[in-house]
Amino acid sequence: MVLALLAAETADQGAAFFAYMGVAAALVFANLGASYGTATSGVGIASLGVIDSSKITKSLIPIIMAGILGIYGVIVAVLINSNFKADTDAGNYAKGYKIFSGGLCCGLSSLAAGLAIGVAGDAGVRAYAQTDAIFVGMILILIFAECIGLYGMIIAIILTSS
To answer: Please, what sign has the CA dihedral across residues 106, 112, 116, 118?
Structure first.
């Protein structure tokens, strides 16, 4: 009995550390990207509001798209947390590393997408304040930037579920 308790306390928890660092990486980096995209696009919307306040509602699209990046991180974090069982998978380093890399894929892809959405959203919204013709082009650029985060989430789901 004492040996069983001692063995449980000294069991190798390295794989669990990497798995849960994957949870943290997915959530933290995705939310960093979402917050940067929101803040930077918000500055552009504030500038647009001074020029033409009737266009503010349509200009909220970059902020919505940046917020979706945070949702990607939450989805992957929940999937990782449900796929890794600390009591049974604690010694499985391959699974821990795979889950850690999945969290990094989602988080860093969403961070890159947030940077792209922030820069393109700010410039696009400021240009939209001056001419309506740029709106469709701005939306297309934002969609392509959002796809970067979506690709990272898809790879993270594949890594954590295999």
So the answer is: positive
